[in-house]
Design brief:
This protein is α/β, with parallel strands linked by helices. It has one domain: Dihydrofolate Reductase, subunit A (3-Layer(aba) Sandwich). The chain contains five helices and ten strands; from the N terminus they run E-E-H-E-H-H-E-E-H-E-H-E-E-E-E. Helix 1 runs parallel beside helix 3. The chain is globular, with a radius of gyration of 16 Å.
């Protein structure tokens, strides 16, 4: 999840134009996606990803990253948290509208390597509230937004974390990897 230094994942209207990325970061994230066989999204992020990544790798001007991520996106299983999307007609996609903890724990107990969540602040908040996040990858961007959608919201009790690793990118972004204790 990308965040501003002051802890926002998007502006008040969902703006994310402040997020910095480069080829080094794309390659780094590629190592994470190689280790995951399931992607989890909220409705808004899923619709955005679906509209772009299904065909991004086929475009004539597709970058190396676009091609690689499009291939991964098209083969990975997807979980969408939504009360409005219907599962009918969706390829390799499960929609969860209720019973989040039970269904997600059942999926996690199957032969799943890793489940990655991309963006999706509302979905992240729901997962955190249910205690379903095992690890955090937080990409801290060198910007102060002052206001927006917070990274963490409605945490009812403290969650103790252990820093596993950090990575600093030349563009000024710092990746922080934490696991729950």
């Amino acid at each position: 999840m990308h965040t501003s230094l002051d802890g926002f994942v998007a502006g008040l209207n969902g703006e994310m134009d402040w997020i910095k990325f480069d080829d080094d970061m794309f390659d780094f994230v590629g190592t994470m996606t190689e280790q995951a066989d399931t992607a989890l999204y909220g409705r808004v992020t899923y619709q955005m990803m679906e509209s772009y990544w299904l065909t991004a790798g086929e475009k004539p001007n597709a970058s190396k990253h676009d091609i690689e991520h499009s291939i991964w996106y098209n083969k990975v299983s997807k979980i969408v948290l939504s009360r409005t999307i219907k599962e009918n007609g969706l390829y390799n996609t499960i929609v969860i509208c209720e019973g989040l903890a039970d269904i997600l724990n059942e999926i996690k107990n199957q032969e799943v390597k890793n489940i990655l969540i991309f963006g999706s602040p509302s979905a992240s908040h729901s997962l955190l509230k249910e205690g379903l996040v095992d690890e955090f990858w937080i990409f801290v961007n060198p910007v102060l937004l002052g206001q927006g959608i917070p990274l963490f919201k409605e945490i009812s009790e403290s969650v103790k974390l252990r820093l596993i690793e950090t990575k600093t990118f030349d563009i000024g972004v710092i990746a922080l990897h934490y696991t729950k204790i």
